[in-house]
Amino acid sequence: MADIAIDSGELEGLILRMRALLAREETDVSDPGGNPSDDEVPAALQELSGDLTRAEIVQEIEALNDDQQDALVALYWIGRGDAEPQEWNSTITLARQRHEGSTAEYLLAHPLVPDQIEEGWEKMRESGELE
Q: What percent of the chain has a predicted confidence (pLDDT) above 90?
């Protein structure tokens, strides 16, 4: 049985915040073209003063302990199909071995990471591997 070091409520909240951040970042237009009115981003996706910034999400992930960060990476790998729920222990071990630099920057470099972490969580729950 797998012991995921991160609380399900905390995980769900983090996934939602990552989705919100990455949705805003996807609307950045590096070359707006010749007609700015055609390139306007909907107001719902523009950063507002109360929104979390990328730095705050990075800080939140980096504030997790090593076991929780490794669990996020393992869930991400399972969600994108690199490992199976039954391989949880070896996936955690691999995440721990490869843990270099910022876990947050590694995860946030992948635009589908919130969906893939959630998919990994679902696969773990459906497999019956969770304690």
A: 60
